[in-house]
């Protein structure tokens, strides 16, 4: 049996990095060796930041965005328009849309999209919570800003059908967003125009 040429702790770190989205084996190895070359203080700072975010960050019980407080800063902001809610797939989408300055309403984070191929149905994301929110509030408009791809479109259509009975206006951001793309990667001008030109579903 050949003797491993890489120390076990390094292999373990490479394996952990390779589990992150978008990180392949080569990128994982580069990250691991970068940490190995750095100081112990830098390594501890990274480790503590990871532990800190897991211990201190949770989900807002209203919109399900990640937050250190409950309700989150957006849901507790009295200057926000509480008659309209923008539905997104992930917390990063909230950051992308809010940066445009075109939207001053509330948000609802689904934490995913309906994808039968991946075994993700409506019950695996925050659809039921959205419906309850619509039923129990004074919302007049729901903007379905899911990603403009197959899963995002399917999710938007499913939610639109579920909300049809509640008399709320259901809209979708206008064209300008690239088909098959993710909101978090779109520029602020494109996102702003898409929001301001949203259309009814």
Molecular structure report:
- The longest helix is centred in the N-terminal third of the chain and has 17 residues, at 40-56.
- The mean pLDDT is 90.
- The chain has two domains: 8-56, RecR Domain 1 (Helicase, Ruva Protein, domain 3, Orthogonal Bundle); 66-200, Dna Topoisomerase Vi A Subunit, Chain: A, domain 2 (3-Layer(aba) Sandwich), CATH 3.40.1360.
- With 201 residues, it is of the alpha/beta class.
- The protein has seven helices and seven strands.
- It is elongated.
- The strands form two sheets. It has a five-stranded mixed β-sheet. Strands 1-2 form a two-stranded antiparallel ribbon.
- The termini are far apart.
- β1 (58-59) and β2 (66-67) form a beta hairpin.
Topology (SSEs and partners):
Elements: H1 8-18, H2 25-37, H3 40-56, E1 58-59, E2 66-67, E3 84-88, H4 91-98, E4 106-109, H5 127-135, E5 141-144, H6 150-163, E6 169-172, H7 188-196, E7 199-200
Parallel strand pairs: 3-4, 3-5, 5-6
Antiparallel strand pairs: 1-2, 6-7
Helix pairs in contact: 1-2
